[in-house]
């Protein structure tokens, strides 16, 4: 089995570590880097995974998963460049950063696979999209997909589509959390206790998601099945359309896509 090093144990890095452990991968096959000692010690206590330096990670791991913030990528790649060769597989989880950036900064021939995951990997329900860089082979992509499939579902896309993926599924959980938050507030406005409103909405979200996942029906059909003539639901849908919720959602996802593009451009030579 490959040893995996997670470079940067922020939210998404921690989510990957947690998901891999929950899927059965032993802590001995994992390590991570974290520049804040207190944070590193906390994660080691929580997961039993060793915190190491970037140099030790490069020596120990076959797969190096880069999960730092985009603004921290340049110093990390400068540190990593003299330490690795074409036998190391670099996996980028950084929003907006193209594989070409890594290929310019790392030794010639270093295989890079770009990934856009999301935080539900904490509960083994991630949606990850993978794209091969210039030197990554189909075998490299299969290796990354195998790692990620242990924490959710995986789809392969051309790298040109990664900014759209980032906006849609990478940021997607936040949109659902935002909607659930608003619906809980609505329940409170209607006189329900917060705990009751939360239970009603969260379970409704879980059930609706399962119906979407398990049914062959289009979301429009599923929605229409709940929408009786002159009933409560159609009145609610009318208000959503009146307030431009659909258009606002389209604009929001376009804005997220545009920001992903900006992050990549910020590192162009």
From TrEMBL:
Keyword DNA-binding appears in the UniProt entry: no
Source organism (scientific name): Prauserella shujinwangii
Pfam family, one: P5CR_dimer
GO biological process assignments: L-proline biosynthetic process
PANTHER family in the record: PYRROLINE-5-CARBOXYLATE REDUCTASE, PYRROLINE-5-CARBOXYLATE REDUCTASE 3
Function of the protein: Catalyzes the reduction of 1-pyrroline-5-carboxylate (PCA) to L-proline.
Domain Pyrroline-5-carboxylate reductase catalytic N-terminal: 3-96
Phosphoprotein keyword on record: no
PROSITE patterns: P5CR
EC number(s) stated in the UniProt entry for this protein: 1.5.1.2
Keyword entries, A-Z: Amino-acid biosynthesis, Cytoplasm, NADP, Oxidoreductase, Proline biosynthesis
Domain of life: Bacteria
Protein name as annotated: Pyrroline-5-carboxylate reductase
Domain annotation Pyrroline-5-carboxylate reductase dimerisation: ranges: 159-263
Catalytic activity: L-proline + NAD(+) = (S)-1-pyrroline-5-carboxylate + NADH + 2 H(+); L-proline + NADP(+) = (S)-1-pyrroline-5-carboxylate + NADPH + 2 H(+)
Residues holding NADP(+): 67-70
Main location: cytoplasm
Subcellular localization(s) per the UniProt record: Cytoplasm
Enzyme class, broadest EC rank: oxidoreductase
Single GO MF annotation: pyrroline-5-carboxylate reductase activity
Pathway: Amino-acid biosynthesis; L-proline biosynthesis; L-proline from L-glutamate 5-semialdehyde: step 1/1
